[in-house]
């Protein structure tokens, strides 16, 4: 079979399949061109989920007629002035997007350059050019795409439904809007506004960024995230990360941007999981948006045709920067927990509350306590000022004494006022109340002490009587051998044993009689998928967590006032005490104004 050159139209359609996977991909390429052109506002109009129609209009620099005719040529670009792929300063630079889109659709481009007296329009229909002609347009560019993939029915057949494609387009626009807070964006679908964000206010980038993220991710985002700002070598990491109790059931609200470009990277996924694994259950994921600025020479953005992936020259530095920055920020947050926990509790109270019936309430108030006078139920409320006392019925003519708020109320978690059901501490703050789960809170405190002891003294090792030889594929064995020093710090001593095996000589003493083969294979999988040795860390922390659980204050134990206040003071001084070892909150704070709303006082 002889070799031949493919026709130009076929080549363009193959290229279109690499660059334009779905309507969202076309939108991304067009909007990035608008951003590169210095647009301050970008309008996107869709129909049929973007399959029938895509229109992108911007107020950027625009193009003269000669540039307009050249922009639909393959690999024609204005964004590599010195042809140096190591210094890419723009989002779109490959010169593939417009000719690729034009090869599989009906596309028209109208543009008016800054200062020009007239606008020009050019068209492409399934790769065939339509000559340029004058057009009516203000400064900027307008690109219209109709019948996407009509020239490649096979690809059209594999698109999802209209709703799915629209959701993909909305998510793509959200990511572009996050990375460019100084630009306003509008997305309309069939005359319905799906997204509208004006240019974010503020003189500083951090102010604009937080305003934009709050507009896109919700008002709770600003209240429940911690600012991130760290630097290592030529890398600078900024952004916002959620406190552990502000989490989701999937990783959809985790965003990473490298030099202003939204990317998907397994290094990022592994680093985030490693930073949060001590505070969240495996099926929960934090909310965060991180922006990494790097020297163009240290990152390759030309790995993927759609520029969705990047490659770092030194991935270890980037991983260490992300993990270190997140852990330091979480430690600095102290006992902070998500404000949405209290809001969720109030919402549950409103949903579950029953209509008030005065006659029933009056009868219940005068009903004698079980067992007669002086005898109390098994569980109840213990007053903080008299720890041994229980609530008893009092004559209606005698008013309860009014006590002033104690000095301890000035502390963030307030002063203990009582214990409910011998499980929950009720604390009074200056502007509300705090309910503490005494077992979950003390479990976290004990766990943090154990971790610190492990860090200070090192992980104790147990030598194996007979070293364990574990056969793996050569790549997995090599990955483990390369990270042997890191594993040794965690108490696992191994070394290469031929081309496709490792030998384990020591294991962490905390693990006891463990499945060494299974552990090593899990570690190899972690290194291949996430470039992190997470399995060993998680197992060590699971053991510490179990020991902390059994060594902490149990639910059902009555505490004295001194013990309650001491527990809360230690929580305030201990990092991460706002959540237990599984990411659940250790306390709920209810503001006085919210409680007043429950009773109709506001």
Number of helices: 19
What's the β-strand tally?
Answer: 25
Residues in helix, %:
25-40%
Question: What is the CATH class name of the largest domain?
Answer: Alpha Beta
Separation of the first and last Cα atoms: 84 Å
Averaged pLDDT:
80
Rg estimate, integer Å: 31 Å
Quote the CATH topology of the largest domain: Ribosomal Protein S8, Chain: A, domain 1
Strand order of the largest sheet: 5-4-3-6-2-1-7-8
Strand content: 15-25%
Task: Tell me the structural class.
Answer: alpha+beta
CATH-level-2 architecture of the largest domain: 2-Layer Sandwich
Give an account of the 3D structure.
The chain folds into 3 domains: 8-197, Histidine kinase-like ATPase, C-terminal domain (Heat Shock Protein 90, 2-Layer Sandwich), CATH 3.30.565; 205-332, Ribosomal Protein S5, domain 2; 381-387 and 406-597, MutL, C-terminal domain, regulatory subdomain (Ribosomal Protein S8, Chain: A, domain 1, 2-Layer Sandwich). By secondary structure, it is of the alpha+beta class. α2 runs parallel beside α6 and α13 (438-457) packs across α17. The protein has an 8-stranded mixed sheet. It has a 5-stranded mixed sheet with strand order 9-10-15-12-13, with helices on both faces. It contains 19 helices and 25 strands. The protein is globular.
């Amino acid at each position: 079979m002889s070799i031949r050159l493919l026709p130009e139209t076929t080549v363009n359609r193959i290229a279109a399949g690499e660059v334009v996977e779905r309507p969202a991909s076309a939108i991304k390429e067009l909007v990035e061109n608008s951003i590169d052109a210095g647009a301050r506002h970008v309008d996107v109009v869709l129909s049929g989920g973007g399959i029938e129609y895509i229109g992108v209009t911007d107020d950027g620099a625009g193009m003269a007629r000669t540039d307009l005719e050249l922009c639909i040529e393959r690999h024609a670009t204005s964004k590599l002035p010195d042809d140096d792929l190591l210094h890419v300063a723009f989002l779109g630079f490959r010169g593939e997007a417009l000719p690729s889109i034009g090869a599989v659709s009906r596309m028209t481009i109208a543009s008016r350059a800054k200062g020009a007296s007239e606008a020009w329009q050019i068209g492409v229909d399934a790769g065939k050019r339509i000559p340029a002609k004058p057009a009516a347009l203000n400064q900027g560019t307008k690109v219209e795409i109709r019948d996407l993939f009509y020239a490649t029915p096979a690809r059209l057949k594999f698109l999802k439904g209209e709703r799915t494609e629209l959701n993909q387009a909305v998510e793509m626009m959200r990511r572009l809007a996050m990375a460019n807070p100084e630009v306003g964006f509008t997305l309309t679908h069939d005359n319905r506004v799906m997204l509208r964000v004006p240019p974010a206010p503020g003189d500083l980038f951090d102010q604009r960024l937080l305003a934009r993220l709050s507009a896109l991710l919700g008002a709770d985002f600003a209240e429940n995230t911690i600012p991130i700002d760290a630097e290592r070598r030529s890398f600078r990491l900024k952004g916002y990360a959620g406190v552990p109790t502000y989490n989701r059931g999937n990783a959809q609200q985790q965003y990473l941007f490298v030099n202003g470009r939204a990317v998907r990277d397994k290094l990022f996924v592994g680093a985030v999981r490693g930073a949060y694994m001590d505070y969240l259950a495996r099926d929960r994921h934090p909310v965060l948006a991180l922006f990494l600025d790097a020297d163009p020479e240290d990152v390759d953005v030309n790995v993927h045709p759609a520029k969705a992936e990047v490659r770092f020259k030194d991935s270890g530095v980037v991983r260490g920067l992300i993990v270190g920055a997140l852990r330091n920020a979480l430690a600095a947050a102290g006992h902070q927990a998500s404000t949405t926990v209290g809001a969720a509790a109030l919402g549950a109270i409103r949903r579950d509350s029953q209509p008030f019936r005065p006659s029933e309430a009056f009868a219940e108030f005068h009903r004698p306590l079980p067992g007669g006078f002086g005898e109390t139920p098994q569980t109840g409320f213990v007053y903080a000022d008299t720890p041994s006392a229980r609530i008893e019925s009092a004559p209606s003519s005698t008013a309860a004494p009014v006590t002033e708020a104690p000095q301890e109320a000035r502390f963030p978690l307030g002063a203990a006022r009582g214990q409910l059901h011998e499980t929950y501490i009720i604390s009074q703050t200056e502007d509300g109340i705090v309910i503490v789960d005494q077992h979950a809170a003390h479990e976290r405190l004990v766990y943090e002490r154990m971790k610190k002891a492990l860090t200070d003294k090192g992980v104790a090792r147990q030598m194996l009587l007979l070293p364990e030889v574990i056969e793996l594929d050569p790549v997995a064995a090599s990955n483990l051998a390369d990270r042997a020093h890191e594993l040794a710090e965690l108490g696992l001593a191994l070394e290469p044993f031929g081309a496709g095996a490792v030998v384990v000589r020591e294991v962490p003493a905390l693990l006891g009689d463990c499945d060494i083969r299974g552990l090593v294979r899990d570690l190899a999988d972690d290194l291949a998928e996430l470039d992190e040795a997470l399995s060993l860390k998680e197992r060590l922390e699971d053991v510490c967590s179990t020991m902390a659980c059994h060594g902490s204050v149990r639910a059902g134990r009555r505490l004295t006032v001194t013990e309650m206040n001491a527990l809360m003071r230690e929580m305030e001084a201990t990092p991460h005490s706002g959540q237990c070892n599984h990411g659940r909150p250790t306390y709920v704070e209810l503001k006085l104004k919210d409680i007043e709303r429950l009773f109709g006082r506001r």
